[in-house]
Records
---
Amino acid sequence: KRSGVLRLNSPATAMRRVPLPLALLSYAFAARTPVPLEVYERWGELSLPEKLYFMLEGSEWTQLRRDFGEMDVDESGVVSWEEFVKAHEEFSSVEDMAAFFTTCEKEEGGAECNYISYCIARGAFDKHGEAYLDNELEMRDNMIVEEMEDILDRNEDNIKGYEFDENGIIVD
């Protein structure tokens, strides 16, 4: 059985978490939870909610929880359309709010907008419901896969104690 953790960025490449253009997301990865080898082996099989744990860092979870809590005034754990509109009508168009809310509901099978589906929807929309040009979570997902493949291909020192075959696959 394999064990160990891959750290995608060294401390030398870590940057403080500041608002960054989407193209610079890879530099922000140093503060997030490292991906264990067992998880990486199944990465393609994981649902987006399962991947979120490794894609977001602590300060992002805190901010998302705060944003969600501000909308969920009845503290039901679900944001209704009325709660969402009340929180965003000053800053957002009805079209933007509807697109965000529909995306949020879709993540839960069209049933509701709970905290996790809200976090997923925020990958495609800003706090006020305006759509990003690219889905941030999809970009992070792709970057995690690319970085892991690069590490395996180069057999970096980050994976001490493992042997690799000619295809970069870890062998016992």
---
Amino acid sequence: MEMRYLTLLVAEIPMWIATMVTDSEIDMGTYPHQKIETSEQLMKRSEHQKSGRSASKFRRRHARRKL
């Protein structure tokens, strides 16, 4: 496995969370991975991960209210 591919998988973990929160499931076989060729592209991609972190915080906040 190339380091670039592994880095992308790790960087996408927050997006998996956002997808699971909004869609309630994730199919890794059809999940749209982006091709990352440069460090700059990877950094731009990491900016998109903020939505995953936000979704995760939203879910935790609402889960606490149900308890």
---
Amino acid sequence: LHGLSNATAEGVNRLIKLVYRTAFGLTNIVHQQTRARYVASRATRPAWPLPVTTTTSTA
């Protein structure tokens, strides 16, 4: 054994299946596929939690 695992691929597959299950009934297949790709890719997600910006007036 070399310590290699396919856990990452299995995790992505699980996320995609979950997205398809929750999006059941969507009529647009392209939107469903786009949603699955967005959820499965960590590179496209914004940083969480989003930074809070406040404006202060100096009047």
---
Amino acid sequence: MPSAKEQRYGREREQNGEHDRQHNHKHDYKHDCWPGWSLSHQADDYELRLFVKELENSFGCDRPAGDATGTMPPYKPERAYTKSSISTSDSTAQLLKFDAEAAVAEAVEDEPADRKDWKPERKQWLAMISLSLVSFVVSLDATILVTALPEMSHSLRGSAAETFWTGTAYLLISAVFQPVIAAASACYGRQRLLVMSIVLFTFGTAFCAVAHDFAVMLIGRCVQGVGGGGVIAMTQVIFCDMVPLRQRPQYFSMVLASWSIGSIIGPVVGGAFVESASWRWCFYINFPFCFLGFFAALLFVDDVDVPLANHPRRMDWLGAFLFVGSTTSLLLGISWGGTQHPWASAATLAPILAGLLGVAGFVAWQWRAQPHSLLPVSLLRSASSAAAFFCALVNGLVLFTGLYYVPFYQMSVRGSSPVRAGIDLFPAVCLLVPGSVVVAILTSRLGHFRWAIWLGWSVTLVACGLFTVFDERTEKAVFALALAVFGVGNGMVLTSVNVATQAIANQTVAKKEDRAMAACMYGFMRSLGMPVGVAVHRADDAHVVDAQPEPGVNMIGEDVVEGRAREAQSRSHEVQRNTYSITGERTLVNNGEAHYAGAEPERAE
């Protein structure tokens, strides 16, 4: 006969079972929210069972309902706990493991598409094409003026410094605003920032197209730079939201290919416009792409929901101000050094030192401003991230140094026309894009990228070595071979470093929006290297000019001069001048005579 305590406990179980049946409670043994329930079935002590019951009630947990007689259903625990089998250290380890998994589960994005068999839907394909289109026009605008600047400088009666900053201002502003726009997209939405960037780029293009002096031209180029930087940043961020990491290199190669093609054919298109129409067509050509990109972004690019935690008030505005100000000051000093001012002058050192101090202050503020800092602090602590970002910086520097160096070498040393100088870049573009696409496919399938980084830099180093032996007697076959090697190496580096930055971010950064910022940092560092590369080219150009024995010495061969003179005489209009340098500081061919020009270009009457 059961004891009084057992009878009392049986009545309580029957009452609880009847209560559960009235409220249609359904239970699953595997989802009991109080793990002590299994322990209560193993205990023989009545007081322990009552204690467990009180804990269950206090935590709001339901107990399994009994049958019609109030009898509990049979229960078979997965593990029989005894007093000696429960270890405090083991339990703590399991609890810590559970907490870590829960934290990661909350932080990592919920991407059901993160599978090996992920394929883009129709709308996602259209979004990728739209992003590739706007990336193409932004990169085209970055280099299209390489062969058009001399004619534009003559038309607008600009000085050497004004001509130089027409090309550099766009690259500089484009670089420094990329992280700011990417961070703002986490507060205001991806699609809004992409559309805003396209609109700014279009307005800047309109300013440049109607400019009649360099003041308006520089304003337009700066506005273009903000919009172009936003397009580059949002392309990276949107791809991170849309495509899983495993498949991202394969599909992002579309954007990299578009960006590469636009960058390399820019000088060809610019030279063709100068010879057949007007330099203003270098800006008119942007409008159709801008309008198509604008409507495509509205129709095909989905906006992500902005979390309440990412309210605009949480935007790190002070960090954005420090970042833009310090990087701009640093790049200004680097651009001035050796060209407009000596490297040891106060005009050069002051902005460089101010920029370095600003960067140090920005980094310190990022630690203080977390978790709402402009850049993820975990990226700043990772040595792997620093190495990958440095590779992106050098990649942009090397690529744009080559893109600016080769056309000027062709026009100045070999006497090529602007169109011919641009066409000579085709060996690079013909192999840069395939190299980038092949590496993207291999890294997606193999899951490794370090081999591509090492091989890409090795090939690029060989190409840069070949560039150093160029002179007026270099064979065309050697020239084409060097450009082909240059294209293959840079194509491999473009894709592999991009994959590396995003893979490292997936290991070091938990939040989804921070991973997107890490991807944007790749584009920023690559864009940061571009104006530095142009400044290096210009400083080296000025150094070579200063090294000439006397101003009157002809800097190009007599055969080149005669060839250019015959070409000028064959034209229907009189050639007033043909300046090949971006600064307008080098060789003038006027009436078939070559002169050295160390001063500003002569102004048209």
